[in-house]
Amino acid sequence: MDYDVVIIGGGPGGYVAAIRMAQLGLKTALVERDRVGGVCLNRGCIPTKALFAATELLARAKEGSDFGMEFAPPHIDLPRLISWKEGIVERLVSGVEKLLAANGVTLIKAEAEISGPGEVSLSTGAAITGERLVLGLGSAPVEIPGFSFSDPVVWSSTEALSPDAIPERLVVIGGGVIGLELATIYSRLGSRVTVLELMPEILPGLDLDRRAIARVRAGLKAMGIEIRTGAAATGYANKDDGVVVNTKEEEFPADRILLAVGRKPNSAGLEKIGIELDRRGFVVVDENLETSVPGIYAIGDLVPGPMLAHKASADGLRLAAHLAGEDYPLDYGTIPQAIFTSPELASVGMSEKRAKEEGYTPLVGRFPYAALGKALGMNAPDGFFQVVADAKTRRILGVTIVGAEASDLISEAAVAVQNGLTLEAIADSVHPHPTLPEGLKEAAENALGRAIHTVNR
To answer: How far are the Cα atoms of 2, 148, 226, 240, 440 from residue 248, in angstroms, in the given order?
Structure first.
């Protein structure tokens, strides 16, 4: 065998797995047909968050009058903005390649095809072998009837992250994470944004209480984003000044259509080599991430579980540990998520509703941003912290944060949930003042009935 492990796909699952496997003494090759980092680094998480941060300056400038500061209307140099975003991506891609080399991973830039047991044929004409093969093929955006990415007017997230112009009117089909994050960015850039969501509420399929969803929806509305739920987009028609997106009840004019109804695993064709897929196209794996073909493993978006970059990386670390004879416990139910809207939303573990469904008697504590001195000083009073614990043991089951910097604040909660900490572990820990993390401590105090800066429930 040329290698102990050959990994196909250099996204956040594949490259992380490759580095850790090499660190554990396995001779490792990583095959990537494009650029390392996958969709997340090149066309997803990183460019989205870069544009989110850049456009937040526009939102903050509008609030200047609240502080007694006035700014001239901003000028957006779109090519320069996109170039700045691409510079960040290039820097990170280069960094990952250097890390692979420093850890002794052989990076092969080519397309790969499994041609036999342990055999991988490359588009370069060469072939390599591996005692074990790992598939980290990622996922792709989903199309729906009546909309095709082959039409330039219909964007996937890829096109939305590198526009040649800012559309005056943008219709977003899909009120999930990707749709709402890009809706936020384009609203800040000046587009008139309408979101059409088929389901009765935005962010469908996520374990969130109605209170959190309602707060995000109110924030989007305050930005001027129009949200229509229960709205099935059936198609679109060209007009002199753009297009019109149709539902059964209404028409919505647009200059561009962002189709963001979800993603599907890049698993097509794997069944030809004996790999079992479920009805949704995900690769069926056992507790060690091994497929139905012995010696072939799958990670990340290919396998069931949250389609998140950090979940893919965790899969890679878990598999590396297994192949090296070590243990790496991973519970998908305790993987945090962060949604970059305005306000931000982040959560980990169970919602109050889910805790009840699982048979717990939940003990719930909340604390509003409006009672935090730091939040008021930031002019960011909208939002709340929510802690859900088991009333019997006081073990923290879940945390939801809606508000400024929620994506950063959730990490302390993730440590608590993943390690089975109690309310007292957070409530009795001294947090610096004045800061936003105090809100999590106060929410835990509230759940215990001993809050200082809010009325106990």
So the answer is: 58, 19, 18, 22, 44
H or E stretch at 14 = helix 14-23
pTM (two decimals): 0.95
Q: With 0-12 CB in 10 A as exposed, 13-18 as middle and 19+ as buried, what is 331?
A: exposed
Catalytic residues: 433
How much is the pLDDT for 65? Answer: 87
CA distance 212 to 285: 33
Handedness of CA 145, 149, 152, 156 (dihedral sign): positive
For residues 173 and 257, the answer to whether their CB atoms sit within 8 Å is: yes
Residue 71: pLDDT over 80: yes
Mean pLDDT of all residues in 82-109: 98
Task: Kindly list the distances between the CA atom of residue 377 and the CA atoms of 372, 382, 453, in Å, as whole numbers in the listed order.
Answer: 9, 12, 17
Q: What are phi and psi of 46, to 5 degrees?
A: -65, -55
pLDDT class for 457, splitting at 50, 70, 90? Answer: confident
Cβ contacts of 270-273, under 8 Å, gap ≥ 24: 270/135, 273/114
Domains of the chain: 3-139+264-332 (3.50.50.60), 154-261 (3.50.50.60), 343-447 (3.30.390.30)
